[in-house]
Amino acid sequence: MATTAYYALRSRGRAARDLRAPGRLDQVLSLGAVVLLAFALAAIGRGAAQWATVPAVIWLHLLTILTATALTPVMLLRRRGDRPHRMVGAAWLLAMFATALATMFIRTSGGFSVIHILSVWTMAQVPLIWWTARTHRIARHRRAVHGLVIGALLIAGFFTFPFQRLLGSWLFA
Residue 170: which of 48, 34, 37, 33 has the closest Cα? Predict the structure, then answer.
């Protein structure tokens, strides 16, 4: 059974298998997620002496974002469209949404900050990503996933290390 995406790819001269195969961007984003995960786990390990002082909402945030970060390469590098991809994708979306939601309760200076805009954007993107997958809008789905990985996971993730933020202070102390 052929889909609209299949015909769209065929009309551009690419084979249908391109829908399911990871591209170069998927590989680069997966590598970035693995590096980010390694840095985060190293930081958490080095901060063990201060674990008791960390609020529960921060631990929830760390747990959900570490889950999403670990699932990112699995989701991006394996075959797409099958049941395991849908299950990993759903877990990834739930983790990303939970991460964004948890940030709404993290306010270091008493109010909302610029990072909260990213959280609102993430909470809006999650249902869009799910909807584009369910309605077989593959190109749009892939762009939205890539955007969320780049913006909400990798860029935001790497900015947790400088500027005396928690993970940075643990990693570089």
Answer: 48
**112-120 long-range contacts, CB within 8 A, separation 24+:** 115/156, 118/151, 118/152, 118/156
Q: Please give the structure tokens belonging to residue 61.
A: 């945030």
Neighbouring C-alpha atoms within 13 Å toward the C-beta of 65: 32
Q: What is the pTM (predicted TM-score) of this model?
A: 0.86
Query: What own/partner pairs with CB < 8 Å and gap ≥ 24 does 82-90 have?
Result: 86/133, 89/133, 90/130
Residue of 91, 49, 50 lying closest to 67 (CA atoms): 91
Q: How many CB atoms lie within 10 A of CB 128?
A: 14
| Backbone angles phi and psi of 163, in degrees to 5 | 65, 30
- The sign one gets for the Cα dihedral 9, 92, 112, 109 is negative
Q: What is the pLDDT of residues 109-153, one digit of tens each?
A: 777 777 889 999 999 999 999 999 999 999 999 999 999 999 999
pLDDT tens digits, one per residue of 154-167? 999 999 898 788 99
> How far is C-alpha 111 from the chain's CA centre?
25
